[in-house]
Structure formats: structure tokens, C-alpha cells
Amino acid sequence: MAGRGTPATALLDKQRVAHTLHSYEHDPRHESYGLEAAEALGLVPERVFKTLVAEVDGKLAVGVVPVTAQLDLKGLAAALKGKKAKMAAVADAERATGYVAGGISPLGQKKRLPVVLDESAGNFDTIFCSAGRRGLEVEITPADLTRLTGAVVAPISAS
């Protein structure tokens, strides 16, 4: 894979945060980017997290949840002390983050959005999330991800 650098990897390198990059050949026909990553890398899916952009009271925010779960919009709103949340339009998410859908990372976003990390991340020593491109995942500790993004940790996943 040519040119592995992304804003997410640049941030990790600049902050000297221990991490491991994992790449795989992205299949555009796969129905779920996150489940594809888990399968391609031979991981339990609960350890792979997806980055979803939503609107909380009209302002963009990010929820990071296991690929096996849905984002609990009420939980996201509550974690950010908001009243109402809905999924953001893909174009708005891409514009604000600087990433394309399926490759949105919680790290190194163009506009720093509030981030909420699902509490289940604490069940693992390291978790995987997008490194800013389809087919590229970063393995990082939940504590480092929380610190670098300023994330709130809360129960925001639903089955």
C-alpha cells in the first residue's frame, strides 16, 4: 500500500504515542467496513471500533462504538449533555473530518469534534479503529485514544 501517512498517523507520530498500523486489501463490495476489517485482520469484532459522525443539538459530534453494535443516539446526546441526536449527512461528516466514509478516524480530524468512546473499549488492552483510510486500521490503547481525542467515555452502543 503506497503512502501510509494520514492525518491520524501523523498525529500519533507527532505525539509519540505507541501504536501499530494494520493494513488489508479493502473490498468495495463488502457491506460493512468495520466487519471487513475484523475479518481481514483476524480479530474478534468487539475489539474493532467504528467512527460515526452524528449531530447533537445541531452540532457535529463523533461516537466510537464496536463494529458489532449500533450507535445509541440518546446515549450519545446524554454523554455530551445534549437533548437530541441524529446521524449526520455523509457529506457533512466527510467535510468536517477530512476523511471519506468508511475511513473516518477519530484521530487527526480537520475540525476537532467532540468524541464519545463506548465504555466497552475498556474491556481490551488495545482496540482497533480507522487510521484514516479504508483498509488501514490503528491499534491503540483506549486510554491513549481517549487522551488524544479528549473523548468522554460512556455507554453509547446498542445491539
Automatic annotation (TrEMBL):
The keyword Lyase applies. Pfam families: tRNA_edit (PF04073). One of its GO terms (molecular function) is aminoacyl-tRNA deacylase activity. Residues 36-148 form the YbaK/aminoacyl-tRNA synthetase-associated domain. GO terms for biological process: translation. SUPFAM superfamilies: YbaK/ProRS associated domain. InterPro entries: Prolyl-tRNA_editing_YbaK/EbsC (IPR004369), YbaK/aa-tRNA-synt-asso_dom_sf (IPR036754), YbaK/aa-tRNA-synth-assoc-dom (IPR007214). It is an enzyme of class 4 (lyase). Its EC number is 4.2.-.-. The keyword Cytoplasm does not apply. Keywords: Lyase, Protein biosynthesis. Belongs to the prolyl-tRNA editing family. YbaK/EbsC subfamily. This is Cys-tRNA(Pro)/Cys-tRNA(Cys) deacylase. It comes from Lentzea fradiae. The lineage of its organism: Bacteria, Bacillati, Actinomycetota, Actinomycetes, Pseudonocardiales.
